[in-house]
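Possible regression after last week's pipeline update?

I re-ran a chain I had predicted before the update to compare outputs. Posting the input and the new output here so someone can diff against the archived version. Not blocking, just want to make sure nothing changed silently.
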Amino acid sequence: MESAGTSLKRMLPQLEVSRQKLRQAEGSCIVRLKREGGKQNVGFSSRPFVLCGLPVRKSPAGELLYERRNGDFVLQITGHPNYGLPFGQDRIVPIYLATLAVRQQSQTIRFRTASEMLETFGMHKGGKEYRRLVAAFERIFGATIFFGTDTLRGTAKVVQRSRFSFFREAQIWYSRDPEQYPVSDQFENVIVLSDEFYREIVAHPIPADLEAVKVLAGAPAVLDLFMWLSYRCFVAKCKEIIPLFGSRGLASQIGSIEYARPRRFREKLDGWLESIRVLWPECPAKISNDGTGLEVNRATAVLVEQKACG
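New output (post-update):
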């Protein structure tokens, strides 16, 4: 089968396409073919970071508190003074950890080399990516998470809240040689997830298409929307409209930066949806005719049993 990059060069030899665009095109074809063939590489994410995204961009120096809201859910992240808030591609670390926790069915997760993680998400194995991965783990390890809900049941208000860290302890070895593997168990990467984070993953494992995550790893805002839509469309009973703005609006949920003008957010959202449809042509999400909401309907991006989506 001819790759997407080869096809583009053959059909449009005058068109200059960057290597990154070629990788994205080929990755998108792989995502669609695997979904159609029922051979997806299924991983998992945790509910707080599907309902409310991590920061897309690096926060200003000294800014250590971040908050997102999704209806009754609220997510607050406090960054470590030395490392700052997690942002951007750091979001693949919780996805990787949640995937290993579900696959290994253990609070103590193990993986052989850091290059395995880079390969999982289609990242280069050079020194720059290793340094970026180390920094991501430091920001994730140092962050404190607050996740809670405020709901009304009859006349009583129910408040469920939890404050936790991602890890309880971690032993991670990095090698400058991406092909070098540990020679003994002493050098195995071992991460013990915090009790609260592990319980959340076990109680509400949210399926994720890891091939799609790989394609979108460099576009965190699009990745947030894809993960959110995968879950939101799956649990939808019929057509629903989610407001774009306000305390319960989409702009308050995903990890995008704030936009001063609604028109600017709608333009961005339209571009993100276009990118998602390349990976998931059947995605039913679209901006409402009056521009105030996002229409969603029941659809499946990840082919797994319904019980896996808590």
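Follow-up from reviewer: compared with the archived run. Residues 1-39 form one domain. Marking as no regression found.
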